[in-house]
Design goal:
Blueprint: H1 5-15, H2 39-48, E1 55-56, E2 63-69, H3 74-89, E3 93-99, H4 105-116, H5 123-131, H6 139-149, H7 153-162, H8 164-180, E4 188-191, E5 194-197, H9 202-220
Parallel strand pairs: 2-3
Antiparallel strand pairs: 1-3, 2-4, 4-5
Protein backbone atom coordinates (compact mmCIF):
# COMPACT_ATOMS: atom_id res chain seq x y z
CA UNK A 1 0.00 0.00 0.00
CA UNK A 2 1.37 3.41 -0.93
CA UNK A 3 0.10 6.83 0.25
CA UNK A 4 -1.73 8.70 -2.44
CA UNK A 5 0.55 11.74 -2.42
CA UNK A 6 -0.47 12.75 -5.94
CA UNK A 7 -4.08 12.93 -4.78
CA UNK A 8 -3.20 15.09 -1.80
CA UNK A 9 -1.20 17.51 -3.94
CA UNK A 10 -4.14 17.85 -6.32
CA UNK A 11 -6.55 18.46 -3.46
CA UNK A 12 -4.19 20.96 -1.85
CA UNK A 13 -4.27 22.99 -5.04
CA UNK A 14 -8.07 22.87 -4.96
CA UNK A 15 -8.22 23.91 -1.32
CA UNK A 16 -5.63 26.64 -1.71
CA UNK A 17 -5.44 28.88 1.33
CA UNK A 18 -9.04 28.19 2.33
CA UNK A 19 -8.24 25.71 5.09
CA UNK A 20 -9.88 26.85 8.35
CA UNK A 21 -7.76 28.38 11.06
CA UNK A 22 -7.36 26.33 14.19
CA UNK A 23 -6.18 26.83 17.74
CA UNK A 24 -2.46 26.80 18.42
CA UNK A 25 -1.51 23.18 18.98
CA UNK A 26 0.52 20.42 17.38
CA UNK A 27 -0.77 20.47 13.84
CA UNK A 28 0.19 17.05 12.51
CA UNK A 29 1.65 13.70 13.49
CA UNK A 30 5.13 15.22 13.40
CA UNK A 31 6.74 18.19 15.11
CA UNK A 32 5.87 21.62 13.72
CA UNK A 33 8.21 22.39 10.80
CA UNK A 34 10.50 25.37 10.95
CA UNK A 35 10.05 26.11 7.25
CA UNK A 36 6.75 26.97 5.50
CA UNK A 37 4.38 24.04 5.12
CA UNK A 38 4.14 22.29 1.77
CA UNK A 39 0.79 21.99 0.00
CA UNK A 40 0.51 18.39 1.11
CA UNK A 41 1.31 19.28 4.73
CA UNK A 42 -1.23 22.10 4.66
CA UNK A 43 -3.86 19.72 3.37
CA UNK A 44 -3.08 17.11 6.02
CA UNK A 45 -3.25 19.85 8.64
CA UNK A 46 -6.71 20.84 7.39
CA UNK A 47 -7.91 17.24 7.58
CA UNK A 48 -6.39 16.45 10.95
CA UNK A 49 -6.92 19.71 12.82
CA UNK A 50 -10.07 21.74 13.16
CA UNK A 51 -10.96 23.87 16.14
CA UNK A 52 -14.49 22.42 16.28
CA UNK A 53 -14.05 18.83 15.09
CA UNK A 54 -14.27 16.48 18.12
CA UNK A 55 -10.84 15.04 18.82
CA UNK A 56 -9.49 12.38 21.18
CA UNK A 57 -5.78 13.15 21.55
CA UNK A 58 -3.62 11.20 24.00
CA UNK A 59 -0.28 12.65 25.04
CA UNK A 60 2.54 11.63 22.73
CA UNK A 61 0.32 10.40 19.89
CA UNK A 62 2.15 9.60 16.65
CA UNK A 63 -0.67 8.60 14.28
CA UNK A 64 -3.95 10.40 13.55
CA UNK A 65 -7.10 8.68 12.29
CA UNK A 66 -9.85 10.87 10.86
CA UNK A 67 -13.28 9.20 10.71
CA UNK A 68 -16.09 10.48 8.51
CA UNK A 69 -19.24 9.14 10.11
CA UNK A 70 -23.05 9.21 10.38
CA UNK A 71 -25.02 8.22 13.49
CA UNK A 72 -27.52 6.24 11.41
CA UNK A 73 -24.84 4.23 9.62
CA UNK A 74 -24.63 0.65 10.87
CA UNK A 75 -21.09 0.17 9.54
CA UNK A 76 -20.02 3.39 11.31
CA UNK A 77 -21.24 1.94 14.60
CA UNK A 78 -19.21 -1.23 14.01
CA UNK A 79 -16.19 0.86 13.07
CA UNK A 80 -16.66 2.94 16.21
CA UNK A 81 -16.36 -0.18 18.38
CA UNK A 82 -13.23 -1.25 16.50
CA UNK A 83 -11.70 2.18 16.99
CA UNK A 84 -12.55 2.13 20.70
CA UNK A 85 -10.68 -1.13 21.00
CA UNK A 86 -7.73 0.34 19.14
CA UNK A 87 -7.63 3.45 21.34
CA UNK A 88 -7.60 1.24 24.43
CA UNK A 89 -4.79 -0.95 23.09
CA UNK A 90 -2.69 1.65 21.27
CA UNK A 91 -2.47 4.84 23.27
CA UNK A 92 -0.46 6.65 20.63
CA UNK A 93 -3.39 6.91 18.22
CA UNK A 94 -5.30 10.17 17.94
CA UNK A 95 -8.88 10.13 16.63
CA UNK A 96 -10.68 13.00 14.91
CA UNK A 97 -14.43 12.73 14.27
CA UNK A 98 -15.78 14.32 11.09
CA UNK A 99 -19.56 14.18 11.17
CA UNK A 100 -20.91 13.64 7.66
CA UNK A 101 -24.69 13.25 8.08
CA UNK A 102 -25.76 11.69 4.79
CA UNK A 103 -28.77 9.67 6.00
CA UNK A 104 -31.26 12.49 6.46
CA UNK A 105 -32.55 14.94 9.02
CA UNK A 106 -32.12 12.68 12.05
CA UNK A 107 -28.46 12.21 11.21
CA UNK A 108 -27.88 15.95 10.97
CA UNK A 109 -29.74 16.63 14.22
CA UNK A 110 -27.61 14.04 16.00
CA UNK A 111 -24.39 15.38 14.48
CA UNK A 112 -25.16 18.96 15.45
CA UNK A 113 -26.10 17.92 18.99
CA UNK A 114 -22.94 15.85 19.41
CA UNK A 115 -20.73 18.70 18.21
CA UNK A 116 -22.51 21.16 20.51
CA UNK A 117 -22.08 18.83 23.51
CA UNK A 118 -18.37 19.69 23.44
CA UNK A 119 -19.24 23.01 25.06
CA UNK A 120 -20.34 21.04 28.14
CA UNK A 121 -17.37 18.69 27.99
CA UNK A 122 -19.74 15.77 27.35
CA UNK A 123 -18.82 14.77 23.82
CA UNK A 124 -17.22 11.39 24.47
CA UNK A 125 -20.11 10.12 26.61
CA UNK A 126 -22.75 11.54 24.26
CA UNK A 127 -21.02 10.20 21.16
CA UNK A 128 -20.84 6.77 22.79
CA UNK A 129 -24.54 6.84 23.65
CA UNK A 130 -25.51 7.91 20.12
CA UNK A 131 -23.27 5.27 18.53
CA UNK A 132 -24.95 2.62 20.67
CA UNK A 133 -28.47 3.77 19.76
CA UNK A 134 -30.13 1.23 17.49
CA UNK A 135 -32.56 1.95 14.67
CA UNK A 136 -33.53 5.32 13.30
CA UNK A 137 -32.51 8.44 15.18
CA UNK A 138 -34.76 11.41 15.82
CA UNK A 139 -35.23 13.98 18.56
CA UNK A 140 -36.54 11.44 21.07
CA UNK A 141 -33.55 9.13 20.59
CA UNK A 142 -31.12 12.05 20.72
CA UNK A 143 -32.63 13.29 23.97
CA UNK A 144 -32.52 9.80 25.48
CA UNK A 145 -28.84 9.49 24.55
CA UNK A 146 -28.19 12.94 26.02
CA UNK A 147 -29.80 11.93 29.31
CA UNK A 148 -27.74 8.74 29.39
CA UNK A 149 -24.57 10.77 28.83
CA UNK A 150 -25.41 13.35 31.48
CA UNK A 151 -25.88 16.17 28.99
CA UNK A 152 -27.82 19.21 30.20
CA UNK A 153 -30.57 19.29 27.55
CA UNK A 154 -31.55 22.94 28.03
CA UNK A 155 -27.93 24.07 27.86
CA UNK A 156 -27.47 21.94 24.76
CA UNK A 157 -30.32 23.77 23.03
CA UNK A 158 -28.74 27.10 23.94
CA UNK A 159 -25.34 25.99 22.64
CA UNK A 160 -26.91 24.75 19.41
CA UNK A 161 -28.46 28.16 18.76
CA UNK A 162 -25.45 30.21 19.81
CA UNK A 163 -23.02 28.15 17.75
CA UNK A 164 -25.29 27.29 14.82
CA UNK A 165 -23.25 29.02 12.13
CA UNK A 166 -19.96 27.52 13.34
CA UNK A 167 -21.46 24.01 13.43
CA UNK A 168 -22.92 24.46 9.95
CA UNK A 169 -19.53 25.60 8.65
CA UNK A 170 -17.86 22.53 10.17
CA UNK A 171 -20.37 20.19 8.53
CA UNK A 172 -19.72 21.87 5.19
CA UNK A 173 -15.97 21.44 5.64
CA UNK A 174 -16.48 17.79 6.52
CA UNK A 175 -18.58 17.20 3.41
CA UNK A 176 -16.04 18.93 1.19
CA UNK A 177 -13.18 16.91 2.63
CA UNK A 178 -15.05 13.61 2.31
CA UNK A 179 -15.80 14.43 -1.32
CA UNK A 180 -12.19 15.40 -2.05
CA UNK A 181 -11.02 12.11 -0.56
CA UNK A 182 -13.33 10.28 -2.94
CA UNK A 183 -15.60 8.83 -0.29
CA UNK A 184 -19.07 7.93 -1.52
CA UNK A 185 -20.50 6.86 1.82
CA UNK A 186 -19.76 6.29 5.47
CA UNK A 187 -17.61 5.34 7.19
CA UNK A 188 -14.56 6.85 5.58
CA UNK A 189 -11.16 6.78 7.24
CA UNK A 190 -7.99 8.78 6.79
CA UNK A 191 -5.26 6.87 8.62
CA UNK A 192 -2.20 9.07 8.54
CA UNK A 193 -2.09 9.81 4.80
CA UNK A 194 -4.01 6.70 3.72
CA UNK A 195 -7.66 7.32 2.66
CA UNK A 196 -9.83 4.23 3.10
CA UNK A 197 -13.49 4.01 2.09
CA UNK A 198 -15.57 1.65 4.21
CA UNK A 199 -15.20 -0.16 7.51
CA UNK A 200 -12.16 -2.23 8.47
CA UNK A 201 -11.66 -5.05 10.91
CA UNK A 202 -9.12 -4.73 13.71
CA UNK A 203 -6.42 -6.78 12.00
CA UNK A 204 -6.41 -4.66 8.84
CA UNK A 205 -6.71 -1.41 10.77
CA UNK A 206 -3.65 -2.33 12.81
CA UNK A 207 -1.71 -2.99 9.60
CA UNK A 208 -2.56 0.43 8.19
CA UNK A 209 -1.72 2.16 11.48
CA UNK A 210 1.66 0.40 11.55
CA UNK A 211 2.38 1.56 8.01
CA UNK A 212 1.28 5.14 8.80
CA UNK A 213 3.51 5.11 11.87
CA UNK A 214 6.45 3.79 9.84
CA UNK A 215 5.93 6.54 7.27
CA UNK A 216 5.78 9.21 10.01
CA UNK A 217 9.02 7.97 11.58
CA UNK A 218 10.74 7.89 8.20
CA UNK A 219 9.64 11.47 7.62
CA UNK A 220 11.26 12.51 10.90
CA UNK A 221 14.66 11.05 9.98
Amino acid sequence: MKPKHFLFILMAAMLGAAAPAHAERESSDTAAPESPMSDEDRLMDAFQNDVLAPTIAPDGYDVTIVMFTDYQCGYCKKMYLTLQTMLAEDQKVRLVYRDWPIFGGGSEQAARAAIASQFQGKYEAFNDALMKTSGKIGKAQIRKAAEKAGVDWEQLQTDLVENSSEISALLKRNEMQATLLGFTGTPGLLVGSYPIGGAMDMENLEKVVREARRLNKRGNN
